[in-house]
Fold this sequence. Notes:
It contains four helices and six strands.
Amino acid sequence: xxxKNKQKDIEERAEMEEGASAEAEEELPFSGExxxxxxxxxxxxxxxxxEMSEELLNKKLTDMNDRYIRLMAEFDNFKRRTSREYERMxxxxxxxxxxxxxxxxxxxxxxxxxKDTNASLEALHQxxxxxxxxxxxxxKNSGLEPFGEKGDEFDPQIHDALMNSPSEDIPEGHVADLxxxxxxxxxxxxxxxxxxxxxxxxxxxxxxxxxxxE
Length: 214
């Protein structure tokens, strides 16, 4: 065989081997693409994991929303119960006060009827004192405490000063006279006492001073 024929035979065999290799590669099953590190990417697995994560997040969001709705409903119920309980407490307190004041009203009614009898003024005065004493006792038992006496030190927290007035016997900055008594209910001021405050001893006039000199 000539050199030319041998060369041709070698080329034909090389072409046959390349064709067989290409056919073999086409018959191999697809194993997926590879990333930069040479590892295969499994797109279907990643998609399933994403779907599962989204489903879990949606479930958690739904559960949290349900809990929020239940808490809001419970809070609204709590507010309504508290409001009703407060109203019942106020009504109960008012009821107790009214019941305790009824005997005082009865005594006033009896005193007014006494005008049709020939009761003396002294007897009427004694009856009014008894009624006042009963009323005062009832109010004190309910937590009412009167304050504001002549000679007390002036306190702007509990006193309302109507005016200043000189006084011979009351020192400056003290209550010289009481116009309206103040009241506390269980320690809380519910009405300030209206008072006249002493400005100290009156100053002597020029005429009085000249008379004293003469």
